Amino acid sequence: MEGPRSARLGERDEVIDFVNDAFLVGGGGGGGRRSMEREFPLLLGEGNVENVVLMKEDGRVVSCAAFLVRELATGAGVLRLGAVGPAATRREFRRRGFARAILGRCHEMMRRRGVDVAIRQADRPDIYLSLGYERVGMMKEFTVTSDLLPQPGAGCEIEEIKDLSEGEIEILRDLHGQDFLGTLRSEEDSALLYGQRSVTALVARREGRAVASAVLNETPALEGELAEYAGEGEACAQLAAHAIARTGEESLRICAPAKGTRLAAALSSMGIHARIKPGCALAKIIDTRDLFKRLAPHLKSVSPGHWVVDADDSGFIVETPAGEVRIADEKVLAKLIFGADSPSVLLPEEPEMACFLGEFFPVDFFIWPLDRV
Description:
Strand content: 25-35%
Distance between the termini: 29 Å
CATH class of the largest domain: Alpha Beta
CATH topology of the largest domain: Aminopeptidase
Radius of gyration: 22 Å
Helix content: 25-40%
Order of helices and strands: EHHEEEEHEHEEHEHEEEHEHEHEEEHHH
Shape: globular
CATH architecture of the largest domain: 3-Layer(aba) Sandwich
Number of helices: 12
Number of strands: 17
Largest sheet: 10 strands, mixed
């Protein structure tokens, strides 16, 4: 058995074949060999091969996982994120600990790359929970129909764009980065995401100026959903109405951070209510001390002074007027920092400290569907 180890550039095609066979019926689901590469262009792209971890036997891949290292803008500053993608093992090699070994190797590599926290979206979370992940976060999900939305063209001109130019990609990138939580994207990342053949961009303009954008992605995982949106709330709502008319669907799903976006506020003002989805992600703290350093400016800006939060390699330390309290359980820390439970639920025996920690936890974060991790 060879590995777990990082994949080599020359093994990339073999890795893509493997994940296609593992996740798509018929080894590509009729979408061809590159179907998983289209759904995960950053994770499985040439620039991320070193973060693909595999095991091989007799020269063929038998188990594989990958992660993407990115900066994540949150409500408390920028964190270094390890976004874990799909993990798979050939059927005849399952229940032999390969996935656990692969993911363990991923976590070791993340720590060396300065990652603070690993995030994973998973329908079957058991193996991740056993490796120290915890269910965190909550998200708003709206289901909208065209009769509830302002009609396209009400105050804005709407442009539909395929095969985006560099200038058009830059417009989307600028709008996306203005006031939203999410991964900080380089020009290269933006070109890969927005340049996919499956992507259609919608741009709302007022007097020639781009005021909102939305992205549709025709890959099966994102059908019926706005993969991304940004800009003025009501203009985004017009783009959603255009998307429904364009696709011929009866409704459209729109996700938002728990604290909302300008579009979420606009939808709420129209009487469209969201459902709250708790525990939408899995998080594992990779480096407690580095995570604290990233959060420290936020903590100091909120702390009333006679309470102090510090950290070492084993956990967070809260210095109170009555003494020192250590929070060493990584799962409790993950839930405390990233939700979905409030500090008063997590620390019922320490109501005063829970009230103090509730001033700055949980931290707002959001992974956009288009990022596909």
